[in-house]
């Protein structure tokens, strides 16, 4: 399966849902926001949101600055 992750083609190794994708990418779950086809998905729905062929995913990681 191929998805679009931040405008680049990506083939998940084992991930089948958004939560598993965050884990596969070794991202800290609490500092990531995810949009699926332009719609923000609440963290509570990541595990129940499956990855599908060609889906557009944008991930944003919170950063601290001053």
TrEMBL record:
The gene from which this protein is expressed is thiS
Q: Which organism is it from?
A: Grimontia sedimenti
Q: Name one Pfam family in it.
A: ThiS
Q: What is the lineage of its organism?
A: Bacteria, Pseudomonadati, Pseudomonadota, Gammaproteobacteria, Vibrionales
Please, which domain of life does this record's source organism belong to? Bacteria
The record's annotation in NCBIfam families points to:
thiS
This chain's protein is named Sulfur carrier protein ThiS
